[in-house]
Design goal:
The complex is a heterodimer of chains A (about 270) and B (about 325). Chain A is mostly helical. Chain A has twelve helices and no strands. In chain A, helix 1 (about 15-45) packs across helix 12 (about 240-275) and helix 6 (about 115-125) packs parallel to helix 10. Chain A is globular. With about 325 residues, chain B is an alpha+beta fold. The radius of gyration of chain B is 24 Å and the shape is elongated. The chains are: A mainly alpha (about 270), B alpha+beta (about 325). Chains A and B meet through helix 8 and helix 9 of A and strand 6, helix 2 and helix 4 of B.
Chain lengths: ~270, ~325
Amino acid sequence: MTREVTAITVRPARRLAGGTAAGLGVAVIYLSLIVLIPLAAVVWRSADQGPGYFWRSVTTPDAWAALTLTIGASALVALINLVMGTAIAWVLVRDRFPGRRVLDTIIDLPFALPTIVAGLVLLALYGPQSPLGINLAYSRAGVVLALMFVTLPFVVRTVQPVLLELDTEMEQAAASLGAGPFQTFRRVILPNLVPAMLSGTALAFTRAISEFGSTVLISGNLPFKTQVAAVNIFSQIEGDNTTGAAAISTVLLVVALVALVSLDVLQRWGRRRG
Amino acid sequence: MAIEVRDVNKSFGTTPVLHDVSLDVAAGSLTALLGPSGGGKSTLLRVIAGLERPDTGTVRISGVDATRLSPQRRNVGFVFQHYAAFKHLTVFRNVAFGLEIRKRPKAEIRKRVMELLELVHLEKLADRYPSQLSGGQRQRMALARALAVEPQVLLLDEPFGALDAQVRKELRTWLRRLHDEVHVTTVFVTHDQEEAIEVADTIVVLAGGEVVQAGSPGEVYDNPANPFVMRFLGPVTEIGGSLVRPHDIEISPGPVEGGSPAVVSRVVRLGFEVRVEVKVGGHDAWVQVTREQADRLGLGPGDTIHLRPVPGARSLALAL
């Protein structure tokens, strides 16, 4: 059977072949030195004393509690950021109000501030001596708060440029075709934002599961209650159990990888579906 | 009247864009809003669509006061210069958009969308995404999308402005034929007088935020309301203090009654037409003649000739 219409595949033109090869080489070497080899070393170290030891290290009550708390809190924080980050990006791009530029700059502060300082500030504001009368110290809510603070910029900063580039004539076209503001948002704006929203959320999630500095003060590091995985890893190292520490790190690595890959798959699926 | 615009004023900040604009568009007509850029024609179109709100004045569509209606309730089809395609939807879903919003049954939507895609010759590309289409195809898709909801009026804002010259010419002819088939009241904005004359049955000339003249292409071309319109609608030249079309000038070798003496400075052959550049009364002018006339007169630089408007030629006296 012959097909009448053959799909046209567009291939990027081959250009600057030599430059590309050199660039690729540099990128691979750089990535290997900075990212791949250290990560491989962690995974390698975790398998030092066999799979049995790996499993036991990960499932000790305190390690397991730290892992589940970290992943649960990170997922919650990622979801909150998905909604709030998108809303903030929207306000920054679409609304005109005094102080907009200041706000736009402040968004990046959680990136700029050493996370331990963030922890100090949060403890001062929401700790036992809270001037607001809100005490979240040594509670899981405190952990969530600290993670929210640190990961806020991710969704905002991934959604904002897409929103800026979004063709407002698409919205006018939707309106002239009879769509109300809500329908326009759901059918036209949201589908164009979803990829950026998801990648921002994935970044926030993966950042949250590895967070140390901001949570270490406000959480009080109570094992089984508020100790996050990164702190647990730290205490394992202090107790001279590097293999155990590497094992927990490996679990975090795998969770981050799964999150990133599944998001990518989700996006591809979304694009195909349209 | 399909569209009645009355005394519309509109400013952006302190810049006035429309000044006391009134306009009637007959049902079933194909009207061009023609004018230089910055003349207010796009703003007027957007006021009719409800995408801009006039400061004062009213807009009636099919007899109903639409001045305060949102675009969503006007049932107006709008086509943008840069297509405004829904990038995340296929061609089919783009065209189906308005019908899906209206919650029409699936089967009906499918039938109507396929009909429209055939009308705009995109039926084979229904499953493509806008990014896989050429500019001309995207604009035809946008047109089908606007027509899908059976709008009372169809508004096109410089619809061919982003396309290259060849595609532009094709789409012009095609739009004219489409209008003869579909008969929906259509208003399109253009700054290209040739496009307006070729496609429209009514031309409204807008300049400086005001309607300067409205009429059929013939009327506007032959009886321009003022020198501006005459210049904008086609080539002009100045002889004896009047604006004349260069093809409305008679050349005689000897003196004639009512003629002005002129000296040929250059003769340019452009295919079948010949452009004779002259000096008359101390300034430059030019005359368009056929090659045959030029050969008969045997013109060359330095020759003295006599010019006068042909009988029945339209000319406008310039205020000095």
